[in-house]
What does this fold into?
Amino acid sequence: MLATNHLTVTYGQKTVLDDVSLSLEGPMLMGILGPNGAGKSTLLKALIGLVPCSGRIYLDNQETNLLGKVAYVEQKSHIDYHFPITVRECVSLGRYKAVGLFKHLTSSDWQKVDQVIEQLQLTAFQDHPISQLSGGQFQRMLVARCLVQEADIIFLDEPFVGIDATSEQLIVDLLWDLRKAGKTILVVHHDLNKVSHYFDQVMLLNQKLIACGSTPEIFTKSNLKKTYGSAIFLDEEVAQ
It folds into this structure.
């Protein structure tokens, strides 16, 4: 179980997350939804200690720092596309948390790297510089680097932005396989029209926690208006 108690993040005089208390019982595939500036990415970063916060964070009822316990994929716009490294080398970086930064990867580690590269359909590109990848291929590589960490909790920040439909569906299918295998996955997401198809749990956030729970119960027009305001337009089939 992953939980927070009165989690608050401030930047100077501005409160980005305000008194967020929640309890998440996995496995789950959860979409984190809210308008721009709602604190969605900040929530993930606060949970793993990348930004300072007040309040408490618990894992399995023990107060803890989640850094090192969670596999995290940040927004790909924050990654240096021109760093001189191949796809296979980039994915292999995910193994160093397990083996140690200054140790060599074993043949078993490389086998796991190659297996995940194949899962994400990147084998043909594994020796290419990462700068040669398309947006969708680059995102798949980041997900592959995440998966080789073999973490039970996975955070993904806007993984579907700027990628092709084939890559998006491949990643969604893989996330569902991971959820069925017992993983807890939190995804910052913005496309409301796909929420009911992609996630079994949702969190609605706008600085404060608006609602959190199963998608059929939480993803409603009433809750969305509380989160985004009254000027929100949805297809009739998106939320009831």
In short: The two ends are 29 Å apart (CA to CA).
